[in-house]
Request: fold
Amino acid sequence: MQTSIDLLRHQLGGIYPPGEITAFTRMIFEALCGYTPTDILLRKDTILSEDIHRKVEEIAGRLARQEPIQYILGYAWFCNRCFDIAPGALIPRPETEELVRLIIKENSGRELRIADLGTGSGCIAVTLALELPHSRVEAWELSSDALAIACRNASKWQTRVDFVQRDILHYDLSQVSPQSLDLIVSNPPYVRQSERESMSGNVLDYEPHEALFVPDATPLLFYDKIARDALTLLSPGGRLYFEINETQGEAIAHMLASYGYKQIRIIKDLYDKDRFASASKPHA
Ligand code: GLN
Reply:
């Protein structure tokens, strides 16, 4: 069967609300043919090769089953860089990009020892290593699958990140040198099990649950452990940056204050939701 680019574009548009050129169409043609949106319009009557046609049909079938486009194509953009993505790690979110931009803005030019706890695809750690080039970045991750993806991303971007396979909740704190870090960042699991119902199939059926969910009884499980350990790990004045559940801002601020942290901020994301927390370890 012969299919023109235009016909296929309309078929793809039909999967999701039909638009001019949907984001999916743009991403698919970019990945398969290297076409820009302008190419898609200018070459609309071009007949696709059998091979490309078959691939597009396969992708369309997977999209119809709600598989995330980033897992299908194997990449996602984060802070203007392309990262390898696979089902063993979360797809980077725009909110996380906001967190990284905030960290870069507040720490540029400084020479810091940074750790990204629960690095997943490594997008936070790699971006910080590139954008804060005087700093040294390490990244902890429990999952071997995620670690492999993160290592690929560090070598793809030719930057040094020291990866450590470590469970944030269960490791021997005495094995890590005290005050060996100046900045800890983490986007840990924060979706409560009871919030599952409100999540869409493309997240629930495909993304790793161990990177998403926490028990309802302990919504601050990771934040509490990290904040406690950071009292040992951070140098005086060292900073914590978290991505957080929008419903937990007040609780996290309270928890941080109870451990004696200073300069506690709960920061909103672009959607005006409490999404980030930051605090400093006291000097004394
Ligand atoms: N923001 C993600 C989501 O809504 C959750 C990320 C996380 O748990 N760290 O799917």
Remarks:
- The two ends are 74 Å apart (CA to CA).
- Residues 93, 187-191, 203, 212, 243 surround glutamine (CB under 6 Å).
- The chain has eleven helices and eleven strands.
- Residues 5-65 form one domain.
